[in-house]
């Protein structure tokens, strides 16, 4: 096993040493891939455990809370990782082989692939979401066209014909944008330009909300078919319509849950990484990425070639490496970890000018069952009275409105083991502006939490909630800024806008520093766990190319 603390200035020979900063889904997925390629990989993580946004919290009073991702899609991406072996990186070949494209969606029993089952138990969740409108009506979305048509007929019959046209056109976007171009690393302008005619032809560059509005007349259906991008930090009013593909990713491969919570999946990925020989150090925050010129001297001339040589941990320990990958926040990677003299493309001006995604207030709470059946599903979207105006306040004006929408997650409806007997564990997530708003969350946080509990009680979504409450804690944008070191406390990385997508999204191979790479939500293709796993494969391909593996 390589000792990362003592190796000094050796001439690199295979296998090469890689350091990954961060053990989020991106860092872990890439760690597995680099180990399979033959690298010796060390992941350094500043938190005391893995997962990043997918960190799992166990409370002394017996609750288990996944702090972040809960909606698991594209289970074959997970299977791909668990199936890798040392020396068998499987980076060539089709990204969506026929057995994946033609496999029927699993709707009952256990859903993970055969290798996945050695590490974690995945089960399908149906419906995918219960979308509750402000007037109390709801739509149980499960990807089944018949059920969808039946519910549209009840809620908005005028939209039935539009639904059929939407399926055809959004399906074409999914095929071109996801199945064919999903894994393209847009590292240069010609690659980008080759994709443009198709995106224009498919009308995928207009905003998602205006795209859905072409097909649906009712506010309800416009919301049902556009809200999903909020789960990856995208404002439906400004993300390009290429994101209509999310709807198809869900419909094609379903939505799944890892028994034991997303944390169980994270633990499975850690185990796989370690079985392949990788090492992880927790409580190991990176202070600086070491960058020199090509002769190993400090960079004085920004125009000279710059090379990543390793990292310096908080506390001063130096870890030399042949390549460094940041899974941390894109903006803070460059602003705080790479010396300014080594950056031209990712200069302070460019990084600060990028638009960051919104942030979140998330309340993790436990409550007594009290024998009262919940009229809720595993995943619930509770829409407030306003949609477009609310989104404009959060993303544009960066103010807290009078009302809010939320995503309420009740995993104990599927997995009672996450709470003490007779109790539920839940979280509710409220999109809020990032810290560019100047809001003081020590003041606004408790007030918003009260408003949310009032809402859940008064609407009888969880009747008598406060009387039944046994556990309550919450995070605000300050958690994202502080604990996760995200610029302005963004929850999802740079906002997925047309001008921040593909070539214009941060590149997975640093444009400034040789042997420095990025992986995760801030890099291409974008946020959300499936995209982050895709980004790991894209970065692994670039590394394999650069190091001739
Ligand atoms: C509340 C919430 C709910 C979500 N729900 C879903 C969902 O249901 N489905 C879905 O697909 N996606 C969801 N997402 C999005 C998804 O969680 C993220 O896109 C994804 O987990 C990001 O993974 P990542 O590896 O890019 O980054 P992260 O998970 O942020 O991991 C980065 C890691 O780097 C570490 N790090 C940063 N700086 C340093 C440093 N200097 N030194 C050492 N370590 C460092 C951090 O501590 C962190 O562990 C959700 C996100 C949130 C916040």
How would you sum up this structure in a few lines?
By secondary structure, the protein is α/β, with parallel strands linked by helices.
Structural summary, described in words:
- 32% of the residues lie in helices and 17% in strands.
- The N terminus is likely disordered.
- The protein folds into three domains: 260 residues, FAD/NAD(P)-binding domain; 126 residues, no CATH class; 124 residues, no CATH class.
- The protein is an alpha/beta fold and 549 residues long.
- The radius of gyration is 23 Å and the shape is globular.
- The protein has a seven-stranded mixed β-sheet with strand order 7-6-15-16-17-14-18.
- Helix 1 packs parallel to helix 17 and helix 5 packs across helix 9.
- It binds flavin-adenine dinucleotide.
- Flavin-adenine dinucleotide binds next to helix 1, strand 14 and helix 17.
Question: How many domains is the backbone divided into?
Answer: 3
Structural class: alpha/beta
The CATH level-2 architecture of the largest domain is identified as 3-Layer(bba) Sandwich
**Radius of gyration based on Cα positions:** 23 Å
Indicate the low-confidence ranges by residue numbers.
1-12
Work out the helicity level.
25-40%
Broad CATH class of the largest domain: Alpha Beta
CA(first)-CA(last) distance: 20 Å
State the CATH superfamily name of the largest domain.
Answer: FAD/NAD(P)-binding domain
The 3D shape can be described as: globular
Number of strands: 19
Main sheet attributes: strand count, strand direction, barrel closure: 7 strands, mixed
Question: If helices are DSSP runs of H or I spanning 4 or more residues, what is the number of helices?
Answer: 17
Task: Say what the CATH topology of the largest domain is.
Answer: FAD/NAD(P)-binding domain
